[in-house]
Amino acid sequence: MSDDTLRARLDLSYAQAIERVTAALKEQGFGVLTEIDVQATLKQKLGADFRKYTILGACNPPLAHQALTTELEIGLLLPCNVIVYEDDGGSVISIADPIAMLQLADNPSLESVATEARTRLQRVIAALSR
């Protein structure tokens, strides 16, 4: 991907990585609203085999409220997507950079929300990388 992604590689099993990222998100005020098991979905819908891969929809309610009251259509970019997938005996966690995502809205009033979200998500990655 690009530099618009916050990423960590963990020498943990996939299940342990899901637990760690969920806990790290919680520490930064994010809850997981949705959890999509991509492997199971592709198997069920297409009969296709795929690696263990989950998309977590993470939300920080105060930041989401601030963003939505600033720009109603920003809901198209919410929640923050966090992916966790199995890779060569470990796991990878990737998070889209909120500053890059909110640039799509082209509303300078969202800059403070994006900056705060990015700071918190960078802390998530830092906590995972320890």
Automatic annotation (TrEMBL):
Supply the SUPFAM superfamilies for this chain.
Answer: TT1751-like
Which CDD domains does the record cross-reference, listed alphabetically?
DUF302 (cd14797)
**Which of UniProt's keywords are assigned here?**
ATP-binding, Nucleotide-binding
By its UniProt entry, which InterPro entries does this protein fall under? DUF302 (IPR005180), TT1751-like_sf (IPR035923), UCP021774 (IPR016796)
Supply the Pfam families for this chain: DUF302
Q: Where is the DUF302 domain?
A: 36-98
Task: Kindly list the GO molecular function terms attached to this UniProt entry.
Answer: ATP binding
Q: Which PANTHER family does the annotation name?
A: SLR5037 PROTEIN
What name appears for this protein in its UniProt entry? ABC transporter ATP-binding protein
* Organism encoding this protein: Kouleothrix aurantiaca
The root-end lineage is: Bacteria, Bacillati, Chloroflexota, Chloroflexia, Chloroflexales
